[in-house]
Amino acid sequence: MEAPITYFYIVVGWILWCTLHSVLISITVTDYMKRKLGKGFRFYRFFYNMVSVATLIPLFIYSRRICEAPIFYWEGPLTIIQILLLAGSIYLFVAGGRHYSWAQFSGIAQIKAERINGSLCNCDAFVVSGIHQIIRHPWYLGGIMIVWAVNLSVSTILVNITISVYFVIGSFLEDRKLVREFGDNYRKYQQTVSMLFPWQWLKSKI
């Protein structure tokens, strides 16, 4: 088992990365950068993605270098649950991606059009379709599912808890931005469609 200080470093590292990732795309920071950069703000999304990847790589490498035996294995009948988690996460990423614009996500669309949408969809109007009729944030749920679908060591559990909390907080922050962008239309959507787990959808089917 690794020394406690190693676990401390890895958790702090992931917390710092999650915080940086959220702060750079927060309403306060993006509004400030819009005022400061003017037309140059069209490069911000691309810059944000590059910084996120560049800071993630060393953290990921450090996490992988921790050698310790898992304390929980997905084996035997539990393998079925693991497969369902992986399959479900892939479905959520694919289904969610149909609603988003990858050009918007990467920042390329903003650079070409010299503008930026608050959301990542192609349209300026609020439109609900596909998986978004069941849950509001399929990518966040998919992220939570996929990080837990591995054999778990102490460090992996600590990292997964940190990432899962980040995804939940990210869902709330994303809701805040979308309310600002789409107003009452999104507030009504929040009342009828659950954030992560499809409680509302399941209730409607019972």
Describe the structure.
By secondary structure, the protein is mainly α. The chain has one domain (4-205): Four Helix Bundle (Hemerythrin (Met), subunit A) (Up-down Bundle). The protein is 68% helix and 0% strand. It contains ten helices and no strands. The longest helix is centred in the last third of the chain and has 29 residues, at 154-182. It is globular, with a radius of gyration of 19 Å.
Number of domains: 1
CATH class: Mainly Alpha
Kindly report the CATH topology: Four Helix Bundle (Hemerythrin (Met), subunit A)
Which word captures the global form?
Answer: globular
Oligomerization status of the protein chains: single chain
Secondary structure: helix percent: 55-70%
**CA(first)-CA(last) distance:** 47 Å
Radius of gyration: 19 Å
Q: How do you describe this structure in short?
A:
This protein has helices spanning 4-24, 27-37, 44-64, 78-97, 102-106, 108-113, 138-148, 154-182, 184-192, 199-205. It is mainly alpha-helical and 206 residues long. It has one domain (4-205): Four Helix Bundle (Hemerythrin (Met), subunit A) (Up-down Bundle), CATH 1.20.120.
